[in-house]
Amino acid sequence: MKVARTPRRASKRLAFGTMFDLDVDAKVGFLSRASAYPERPRRVEVIETHFSWVFLTEQHVYKLKKPLRGDSFDFTGIAARRHNAKGEVCLNRRLAGDIYLGVVPLTQEADGRLAITGNGAIVDWLVQMVRLPAGRMLDRCLADGSWRPADIRALGDRLARFYATAAPANEAPQRYLRRFAHECSASLREFAIIARPELQNAAARIVRRLRAFMRRRSNLLERRVRERRIIEGHGDLRPEHVWLGRPVRIIDCLELRRELRLLDPVDEIAFLAMECARLGAPQIERILFERYRLRTGDAPPQALVRFYKGVRALIRARIAICHLKDPDVRDPAKWLRRAADYLALAERESSELSREVRHEPASVRA
To answer: Fewer C-beta within 10 Å: the chain N or C terminus?
Structure first.
């Protein structure tokens, strides 16, 4: 979730336990001014995310990585931030090649002034993108009802071509199963620490059903690995990352951890369909999977789709509830509502999944 915020002071400690660079306020302050940019925009919109500051002019988007350190990454050094920025550009060019222009330096000139692609010492790096018209982002189209089935067919075709041409990933069936077991356990831990009893109980019911499916239908998940269906996908395929132009562009992949991009395309499409349903368009799921089946010949069983949606909804609920850990969280009631909404989705999918498995013939489970 991206929110516009006033930049935090340099002395503010992040949730990750890392201090900002001493000059980070100067960087953010400079990039917040229209005079900083070669195109001389009329105004600059500043958005703060968990990992970056994003600066939007009329024509371009510039992204400055935060100097964070976490369990699996360390962006406290300029070289590491450059490496991450270059990786982001490379990965996102797979589905939005002409939008990701490259990585440009932020420099400090001899007189102490900052500049974009100046001649001075490099003090940081920026991802530069073309700014897409917001009105054609899928989340906006869902909100105002302007999307059309033809838009979703084009999106489905774009995704199917991407998945069909992606190289299969090296994955082991048991390791693949352990991923979902880990997500279930991690979700239970977070809800036990943070959430209200009714949310804890809902999460526990959902996890019981998902674990039962993994025990009884492990063959279905393992088969996806043996058929070499696992590929390196987008990793965060949500409506706010889809632009319904011509051609369709899909931005903001999950660049931080490769293992989170190694997935079943059915999982990724199910996630997008779930998010569209949450925003009021459940019919999009049918269109997306029709195009996927037509282009790839892969016809996944509904039980597999339900399982993936149940796990994804549980993860999104956990992400929402974890916002309450942030001492600077704004509107905690919003995140509680968001967690409850995702748990309701996970409850519905896992309940249907449990019913389907109970009533299916034994020969299907074999």
So the answer is: C
